Each structure stands twice: as structure tokens, then as C-alpha cells.
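Q: Here's a chain of 380 amino acids. Please give me its 3D structure as C-alpha cells.
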Amino acid sequence: MALPWSSSLDVSYVGNHGYNRLGALQNGSPVNLNAIDLGAGYLPQNQDPTLGPQTVPGAGAYTQTNLLRAFRGLGSIQQQATEVHDTYHSIQSNFNRRFRNGFSFGVNYVLSLSLTGNTGLTTRLNHAADGTISVRDDQAAYEKLNEMLNLQRHLLKANWVWNLPRLSSSNTAMKAVGLVVNDWQLSGIYTGSSGSRYDLGYSYNTAGNPVNLTGSPDYGNARGGTNFDAGARIVYTSKTDDGCSDNQYKQFDTSIVAGPTYNSTGMESGRNVLIGCATHRTDLAIGRNIRMGGTRQLQFRVDAYNLFNQAYVTGRNNSVNYNSPTDQTVRNSQYLPDGSLDPARLQPRNAGFGAANTWTTNLINGNYQRVIQFTLRMQF
């Protein structure tokens, strides 16, 4: 759409649907036809009689995992399957004012509506006594729960060029001033985006191995992200998606998080639940061309990358360590029992659960901080 003020507006829908993709090429892995079924480690026939009775589920299972498989004595039997799919929806817009009267301006904005799919998920199987293999009945619910991919909701980029106003005067003194202030051009780029999504992990000091939690060593302690197995997952006691805070020691609400317990089927929570910090950056340049006669000119330019020296949190200690599934005392808390900060965890390298441990500005020429660059160029 053409608009007044020498400008134009473009708005479009952009989407994609991919299907029948090969899992091993989509951040996934082949389907293991001989994976140990969920709950197999709890079954009486899979208990090692030399270990005696156990109070922790799965603790008595054979430690030689090939003895727990449907096809005993064999390891993984991998199948390349074309079962991966994903779907993306967005509205993308672009506003431009072409260069006129010494000024141009443009802004591009992407509103991502959804990005879902089963990329990176595991096909979970059941093995019958007669040797037949089937997909678990809860596979569809498992994929629905984990359908959220790393959706970045907002992405904005603006640019501008402005020839600064000229000073024209017949006065001798003002002409001298004009020689200094005329022919300058100011330009810049602003980039802003929503934060990336991430998940929380966990570990147990005792009695929390995958075979204890899910009854299967093949379904480990899932951490989420693009590629993860179908093991027990962190528990959120209330709904949240807030994964960024002004408090560097508490990037998310750690009080609503718990570890999974025994007899898990990996359905405690979905993936990409939390959203990290938004990013902002402004690059600015100012320059002047000084005419030297003929085709010769001298150009002076100053570039400021990340002008406002903006930094943002890119990493947190997102893995909580508990005593055990039945004693969920946090062993790596950022705070002492009285609510005060643990003085031993004030440095990012010693960050406790929930605290930021990595910051960055945008990488420019190998540097993360603000960079000022001066350029003097002769053209002839």
C-alpha cells in the first residue's frame, strides 16, 4: 500500500508446514525399536534376585540394561522414521519512507503467532509378550504437551538516515560556522526481540536415577529444549512463562518448582515453558563528506555499535538439585533458610538455582561491550 509522505506499507502472512521429515535430520534421533518400556524396571521379572528387596522403585532392576529390553541381550535397534512435523504462523510487516528531503526511515516487524511441532520428541513404544511393537496410547498427548518449539514472539528492526539541516547565511561569521556544521549525516539501526525460551532441569543426590523415576534407563532426566528424551520432567505447581526478572538472583519463581517422583511417564510439564530476557541494541553513525574539489572528498565517520552498552541475561542456573524424590530439599539454593542471599553464591560462577550466570551484549567484531569506531577516508 502506497502512503503519503513518500512511504509504503507492506503487511503479509508468512507460514510454513513441514511434514514427513526424517527425525535424525530434525534435531532428533532414530526410533529405538528395542527401547526399554516405561515401567519395565518395576516389573517382578526384571528384578535382580541377588540385590534382595528394595524400598526405592526400580532400585532392584538388573543393572545390565540389555536384560530389561524386549529383545533380551540386544542393544538399540534403530529405525529411521519420517514422522517429524512442525507448523509456523506469523504476521510480517514493513514500513518504509524512501529518502526524500534528506530523510529516510524503515521499520520491519515480525509477530510470530505460533511455532509448534514434534521436532526432537521421542516415539515411545510398548512391547507385547508376543513380540509386537506398538506406539503408546499417550503418545498423542505427550506430543501435544510438548508441541511448543522455540517461538520468538516479537522481532523489530528499524533504520534511519538523516541529513542534518544546513546552515545557510550571507553573514561572514555564520558562513564560518556553516563550514563546521554543514554536510553531516546521522544514521542508525535499532534491533529488539523477545527472549528465547528455555526449560528447567533437575537432579537428585540419591534414589533419583531414570530407572527409579520412570522404570526405564532409556528415558532419562529430561531437561527440555529442542532435543530431549521422554524422561521425567520438572513439575510446575502453578502456570508460568516468566523466565526473566530484574533480580539477577531470582530470574524465575523457584517456589513453584518441584522435582518429579516415582512412576513418572514424562508428562509432568511441557517444553520451552519459560521465556528469557528481551534484547535491545542501537547502532548509531554520524559522518561528514568534505568536498575537496573535483571528484575528491574527505569523509569523516564515527560508528557506535551498541551505543547504550546494553547487556542482557543469556544464561541462568536452571538446574535444581534435590536430596531425593521423597526429600525435595534444595541443595543449591541461592538463598539461605532465613531468606537472605547466600554469600558463597554471589558470583555468577557460583550461582545458585534461579540466579543469572551469563550476560552479554551483542557480539560486534569479537567484542560484547560498546564499540566506538572512527574512520577517516579520502576519495579521489
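Q: Can you summarize the key feature?
A: Residues 172-181 form the longest helix (10 residues).
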